[in-house]
From TrEMBL:
Name of the protein this chain belongs to: Succinate:cytochrome c oxidoreductase subunit 2
Listed Pfam families: Fer2_3
Domain of life (superkingdom): Eukaryota
Keywords: 2Fe-2S, Iron, Iron-sulfur, Metal-binding
InterPro entries associated with the record: 2Fe-2S_ferredoxin-like_sf, 2Fe-2S_ferredoxin-type, 2Fe2S_fd_BS, Beta-grasp_dom_sf, SDH/FRD_Iron-Sulfur, Succ_DH/fum_Rdtase_N
């Protein structure tokens, strides 16, 4: 999942990277972020062809509400 990759980057390459997360199952929304202009939940976002070329990751600010994929529950 994208959250795992972000945590690995924080742990191994950039300790200044700040990541919020909670349940890691897509229920709490604590990890909500905007990736390349799209709001999503990194804990439920698989790394695949849809997430190639990530250039920006920003914390989610209201009023944007991410929608968890159905396979996340």
């Amino acid at each position: 999942m994208l959250l795992d990759v972000l945590l690995k980057i924080r742990d191994e390459q950039d300790p200044s990277l700040v990541i919020k997360f909670g349940c890691r199952r897509g229920r709490c929304g604590a990890c909500a972020a905007v990736v390349n202009g799209v709001s999503l939940l990194p804990c439920c976002t698989p790394i695949n062809k849809d997430i190639t070329g990530v250039s920006t990751v920003k914390g989610l600010l209201p009023p944007i509400v991410p929608v968890a994929p159905k396979d996340c529950y």
